[in-house]
Write a structure and sequence with these properties.
The protein is mainly α. The chain contains 14 helices and no strands. It has helices at about 1-25, 30, 70-85, 90-100, 105-135, 140-150, 165-175, 180-195, 195-200, 200-220, 225-235, 245-260, 260-270, 275-285. Helix 4 packs antiparallel against helix 5 (about 105-135).
């Protein structure tokens, strides 16, 4: 009975770690029904981002193509980078990978995702190891740890915080125009942005918020449904930008035009009920 209980605790620890990583890495609108991909027919919309310039704190790298013709190649490059990192131990190659990532935005994005996953599983692994040293039978502990090693092999041996590095890597991918990195910048860079070191420096908090706005708007400007949904969230919630219901509604109009489905129509109808006649008129006029 005790052994079964401990196995259940192990499973719970792993699931919690995976849930944390999933929440930050997987775009939120994918969870609520907005799959990655272009809108209906891949059409672009008329919604344009604000005139943000790249933050000088972010490295300038070669641009990543975002045209329809390059979409398959971009996806293949990301899959290749992910597969490469899944087959190695990050601990022994992190310095070399970091140097290479500063020249390769796709690798930078993949490495940021891998480090975030490792940071989420680290606490679960540490808790299991402590349990193994204390109360679990040696055989059961060895088996449980081996299972975690198998599923998170690339994370084994990786120690210390890499939140600041994730912040840098996320910025490299996003500032180079990699759509996936722009969509996931908030989560990938967020751990460092929420750290005590950053929260004590208002200028760094402002930099992070500015980057979130910039990359979200750039993603939305491509007409990508995920980018449009994120931009709607940005201006409806007012978390990283001043709340702007008119602007938020314009992004919802563009989202509905891109998707032509029941979900986006319901979202549009529901949000429209929160706006005044003047706001609706302003939102439906040419920006």
């Amino acid at each position: 009975m005790v052994t079964a209980t401990r196995k259940m605790l192990l499973v719970a620890l792993v699931l919690v770690a995976l849930a944390v990583a999933f929440w930050f890495v997987v775009p939120r609108s994918a969870v609520v029904g907005l799959p990655l991909g272009t809108g209906s027919g891949g059409n672009r919309t008329s919604v344009q981002p604000e005139d943000h310039r790249p933050n000088p704190a972010l490295p300038v790298t070669s641009a990543v193509p975002t045209s329809a013709s390059s979409r398959v190649a971009r996806s293949a490059a990301i899959d290749s980078a992910d597969a490469r990192l899944n087959g190695i131990h990050l601990a022994g190659q992190l310095e070399a990978l970091t140097d290479e990532s500063r020249r390769d935005p796709t690798l930078a994005y993949a490495l940021a995702k891998a480090l975030l996953l490792c940071s989420a599983t680290d606490s679960a692994y540490a808790g299991l190891a402590a349990e193994a040293e204390g109360n679990m039978k040696a055989e059961a502990a060895a088996g449980a740890l081996a299972t975690m090693d198998e599923h998170f092999e690339k994370c084994v041996g990786l120690s210390g915080s890499h939140d600041k590095l994730m912040f840098e890597l996320a910025g490299i991918g996003a500032s180079a125009g990699l759509l996936e990195a722009q969509l996931e910048y908030q989560g990938l860079a967020g751990k460092y942005a929420r750290s005590d070191a950053v929260l004590k420096k208002p200028e760094l908090v402002a930099q992070y918020a500015s980057n979130v706005r910039m990359f979200t708007e750039r993603a939305a400007a491509t007409g990508h449904p995920e980018g449009l949904y994120r931009a709607y969230e940005l201006y409806s919630e007012g978390r990283f930008a001043e709340a702007d219901p008119v602007r938020a509604y314009r992004y919802l109009i563009a989202l509905n035009q891109a998707r032509h489905d029941a979900f986006s129509q319901r979202l549009l109808d529901r949000y429209s009920k929160q706006l005044s006649t003047e706001q609706l008129r302003a939102a439906q006029s040419t920006p």
